[in-house]
Amino acid sequence: MAKYGGQSILGGYLFTTASPCELCAKKAYQLGIRKIYYIDPYPGIATNHVLASGTQRPELSLFEGAIGAAYHDLYQPVMSYKDELPLLLAGARASSESSTD
Fold first, then answer.
1. Architecture per CATH, 1-64
2. Boundaries of every domain in the chain
3. pTM higher than 0.85
4. What is the mean pLDDT of residues 28-46?
């Protein structure tokens, strides 16, 4: 985004699966990322040597929420699409009939 999008990410948030490695931490620091959310800690020197330096340090925050199977369960359909379609069509018909009354 910062390179091609023409939009600043200064003060933005970064969501990532692992805490940033040294190169990613350096880039996040340079871009002015304010907070980095991650799921798994990455073993390395990024926190001590890159993110703990300077005056505009990004804050690291371990993500607390739906991860793993719970995350995927949020996006799984409750019923199959073939069973859901008649209900959707019936709802659309009822909605159009009530709007013409």
1. 3-Layer(aba) Sandwich (3.40)
2. 1-64, 69-101
3. no
4. 86
